[in-house]
Amino acid sequence: MQRMLEEIQDLRKQKNAVILAHNYQPTEIIELADYMGDSLQLALKAKEISADILVFCGVRFMAETAAILNPQTRVLLPAQDAGCPMADMITAQQLIHYKQENPDTAIVCYVNSSVEVKAESDICCTSANAVQVLASIPEDKEILFVPDRNLGTWAAKQLGRTIIPWRGFCPIHQWSFDATKVEEVRNRYPDHILLAHPECNASVTDLADEVMSTGGMLKRAAELDKMIIATEKGLPDYLKKIYPQKSIVHLEPQAVCKDMKKISISHVLNSLRFEQYEVKVEADIAARAVKSLDRMLELSR
Ligand code: 13P
Ligand code: SF4
After folding, report:
1. What pLDDT is recorded for position 300?
2. pTM for this predicted structure
3. CA atoms within 13 A on the CB side of 282
4. Which pairs with CB-CB distance under 8 Å and at least 24 residues apart come from 159-167?
5. Given a cut of 80, is residue 301 above it in pLDDT?
6. CB of 79 closer than 6 A to ligand 2?
7. Residue located nearest, by CA, to atom 1 of ligand 1
8. Which residues fall within 8 angstroms of residue 100, CB to CB, at 6 or more apart?
9. What are the respective helix, strand and coil percentages of the chain, to the nearest 5?
10. Rounded CA gap, 48 and 41, in Å?
């Protein structure tokens, strides 16, 4: 292991590479990364980075977003098949068809979507800025929110608005947590604050003390001593490691995203050694998708 880590250090210098890791990555990957963050933080970082290679430890839609935002840098995804089942719950063809039937509807897409879907959308959002993005759309405009029905419905509720939700969801957040589990764990830890991700279903976000992105949770965890976390396991694992003195309870320890766990240290090493797997986005699709991303980033500055 030590030798692999040393080789990674040598190669990243030699090849002028930067390593980014999403907050759900295994702790050992987060520890070797130059930057960690949620989807928005990593998109902003990817855009400003000046390097020859960016090794993106996350899932495909994140690496694609980085490649679109920073076309000068070669973006590598160390595990070729690290995808996101929610992103696959809508195709560009389905969205094009919807737009033909509803030409006046604004399309807001969660960043957890394909580049083709981003290219067909008016504006993109992440869990950190969904409320802000929806607020930027005129009140009288009908909104289709794709693909995550939970995030879209939750964000609209914060503004007292309604949206038309697509039927997508994150299987991990949708099925790992529910109201019964919240009640059970809260009974055991009555003085803990419940932080939930907005990809959870409404039965959980309605009961949570606070709802936020994974980046928001990291920030909030620095202030709290006792907390229950309703999101993917990578984040509570990392929090437990950096705050051994705090009481951090994962609402459901089986809430694991297999795709987020596909990257190991040897994948990162091979990615740097063989410059694999390069994420390429067709220029015309990228040119359209970047508009929906740029509109979002403009609001987040
Ligand atoms: P954030 O880290 O942006 O909150 O989103 C989590 C997620 O769904 C990644 O798949
Ligand atoms: Fe997709 Fe859910 Fe995994 Fe995030 S946690 S990458 S939304 S399947």
Report:
1. 80
2. 0.97
3. 7
4. 159/131, 159/134, 159/135, 161/134, 163/108, 163/134, 164/105, 166/89, 166/90, 167/89
5. no
6. no
7. 38
8. none
9. 50, 15, 35
10. 11
The sign of the torsion formed by the CA atoms of 165, 69, 54, 27 equals: negative
Ligand sitting nearest the alpha carbon of 38: 1
Among all chains, which residue has been given the structure tokens 């990615």?
271
60: buried, middle or exposed (CB in 10 Å: 19+, 13-18, 0-12)? buried
Give, using CA atoms, the residue closest to atom 5 of ligand 2: 257
86 Cβ closer than 6 Å to some ligand 2 atom: yes
Average pLDDT over residues 139-168: 98
In the chain, what are the domains?
2-83+260-281 (3.40.50.10800), 87-168+287-300 (3.40.50.10800), 172-250 (3.40.50.10800)
Task: Write out the H or E segment, with its range, that includes residue 82.
Answer: none
Pocket of ligand 1 (CB under 6 A): 23, 38-40, 84, 112, 126-128, 199, 213-214
